Amino acid sequence: MLQVYGTELGSRLLLGSARYSSPAVLTDAIRAARAQVVTVSLRREAAGERAGQGFWSIIRALDVRVLPNTAGCHSVKEAVTTAHMAREVFGTPWVKLEVIGEDDTLQPDVFGLTEAARILCAEGFEVFPYTTEDLVVAERLLAAGCRVLMPWGAPIGSGRGLNNLFGLTALRAHFPEVPLIIDAGIGVPSHAAQAMELGFDAVLINTAVAQATDPVAMAAAFALAVEAGRAARLAGPIEPRDFAEPSTPVIGQAFLG
Known about the structure:
Layout: E1 2-4, E2 7-9, E3 13-16, H1 23-33, E4 37-41, H2 42-46, H3 49-62, E5 65-69, H4 76-90, E6 94-97, E7 100-102, E8 107-108, H5 110-122, E9 126-131, H6 135-144, E10 150-151, H7 165-174, E11 181-183, H8 189-197, E12 202-205, H9 207-210, H10 215-235
Parallel strand pairs: 3-4, 3-12, 4-5, 6-9, 9-10, 11-12
Antiparallel strand pairs: 1-2, 7-8
């Protein structure tokens, strides 16, 4: 079981709710993914009454937890205000905290992020910060009160997978007891399996599922990949070697004179 902020989750695949072609497709994708946590943007749901009602009907029917996010926020004030609104609307202290610092890559503003995290944690929020793989930033976020970290694999929606394997591996090694969820950049199920094999605790997927030709089939594929990657990690994979090592022993092999 994955435990975050005292809540146990049976699934290690979190699913985003944006960019699906219809509420029906979103519903079927959540079911296929077997996700227990679904992220939602306050701005998108507040944009129209019908959209909000449709989302809540899905949540009630599927009995999943909502993880509101502050997507699109570019300042500490904007992110904190959005988080307060989300807590009021969705009735949860959970918030996926995003403070965007660069528009082309949607890279987090790590300075604003740590400040917003400090404010929100002090106010009783349970913060899931969207961050980079930087170890110093991770330390600052944990010191601010975060008990979960959500490092990016690659820029949001890029589908490039895990861009900095060294940095992500170092992050996992430095914080072995902290739940780490890969957020952003995963494009195909093999990327998710790789993240789990590296020892990450979960992955959050949105674009790779929502924009697939068949989102429901892709959600099911990601569910299998996450399970396979986790099982492989627990099984203890062999270490990479520089030279070949025969799998068949040479002892007892016949030699011709």
